[in-house]
Design goal:
alpha/beta, 14 helices, binds pyridoxal-5'-phosphate
Length: 378
């Protein structure tokens, strides 16, 4: 089958190639070069952060988070079951036990009403995921976390530039993580960032990212030689990737406004059809500004979703489902997950379909997607 409308295509909108060429001419293509510094400064200024450190992926930023929180075998970490493996894998690597919590049926975010029942004396972190870049109920989550001084690490892979009650996602937790993977609004192919809101973590984060050395302090002239000072790994991206990323960040408003138009077109043209066919469209609480990361539909059941995806594919349109419940994955079951543990997640996971969504998706292609959806026979 020839694909006419793809699910995702990376978009090039700014000075990506020119900046990569400049990085080559700079003779600095390893990490922490001029483009890494500019991209980090851009994130720090635009988001109003203490420190942003570019990483090779959101997965690696999450691993840095688990390092920084000194997660030990047997520690419990609270996470929604409806998320990507990396959110929790980064902590399980260090021996943590995932405590899977169900999601809200409206925003598909961690259900804050279940949080109190999931916290124990062994809870060492809470990991809210802002699904589709719509903010979790951060007031309630932060209040529960603060009562027991449990750190919050926001997995903000989808949510760059989204807001909850006027405050940017990624600025609530002690730490937050971003993804710049090809499917994200702002990309460099593979990449990520650790956002550090609690300044107590900054120095150790630099060391962990630099293979356990104090090389960052050396480069700033704060020590006269650098050496092995702590545990660490290699999480620093090449300046070539940072060059690509900076070019995208510089035109983020343009990217966001394209994506807003795409999202609103789907919503405007599918709203009535959805309401009359028992299909749920995304819910954005009035106090949330979403990041326009994706557009999804919740179909009545798995059988309809399977036919829906196959029908669109037969017309050359690629739509995809999303996360399988983590507690029912092979690993999740080994760790004690059982059917029925997270009923909302189990139902949503069977019914959710993501429509083609990328920054340069043309109006003509989008109109074609909508036309095929409106013709779908239930
Ligand atoms: C919620 C969430 N967290 C983390 C990741 C991992 O991101 P990366 O590919 O940058 O490691 C993803 C991937 O899409 C994701 O959806």
């Amino acid at each position: 089958m020839q694909i006419i409308v793809d699910f995702n295509k990376p978009s090039f909108l700014g000075n990506e190639l020119a900046y990569i060429q400049q990085a080559i001419e700079n003779r600095h293509i390893s990490g922490d070069g001029p483009f890494t510094k500019k991209a980090q400064a851009f994130l720090e200024t635009t988001l109003g952060l203490g420190r942003a450190l570019l990483t090779t992926s959101c997965t690696h930023a999450l691993e840095m988070g688990a390092f920084l929180l000194d997660i030990q075998p047997g520690d419990e970490v609270i996470v929604p079951s409806f998320t990507f493996t990396s959110t929790i894998n980064a902590f399980v690597i260090r021996g943590a036990r995932p405590v899977f919590v169900d999601i809200r049926p409206d925003t598909l975010n961690l259900d804050e009403r279940l949080l109190e029942g999931a916290i124990t004396s062994r809870t060492r972190a809470i990991l809210p995921v802002h699904y589709a870049g719509v903010g979790c109920e951060m007031d309630a989550i932060l209040a529960s976390a603060a009562r027991r001084t449990i750190p919050v690490v926001e997995d903000n892979a989808h949510g760059l530039f989204g807001k909850y009650k006027g405050k940017l996602l990624g600025t609530f937790g002690s730490l937050a993580t971003q993804s710049f993977h090809e499917t994200k609004n702002i990309t460099c192919g593979e990449g990520g960032a650790l956002l550090i809101n609690d300044p107590a973590f900054i120095e150790r984060a630099e060391i962990i990212r630099e293979k356990g050395t104090n090389r960052s302090r050396f480069f700033r002239g704060q020590v006269d030689k650098y050496t092995w000072v702590d545990l660490g790994s290699s999480y620093l991206p090449s300046d070539l990737l940072a060059a690509f990323l900076l070019a995208q960040l510089e035109v983020y408003q343009e990217i966001q406004s394209h994506r807003q138009r795409i999202w609103q077109y789907y919503q405007a043209h599918l709203g009535d059809w959805a309401a009359s066919n028992g299909v749920q469209t995304p819910f954005i609480p009035p106090y949330c500004e979403q990041s326009y990361h994706m557009y999804y539909l919740l179909l009545p059941n798995l059988e309809t979703r399977t036919r829906f995806i196959a029908t669109l594919l037969s017309r050359g349109i690629l739509s995809v489902f999303h996360y399988l419940p983590l507690h029912l994955s092979d690993m999740g079951r080994k760790l004690g997950g059982r059917s029925g543990d997270c009923p909302v997640t189990e139902s949503i996971s069977d019914r959710l379909v993501r429509l083609p969504f990328y920054t340069t998706l043309s109006l003509a292609d989008q109109a074609r997607v909508v036309e095929e959806i409106l013709a779908f026979q239930f």
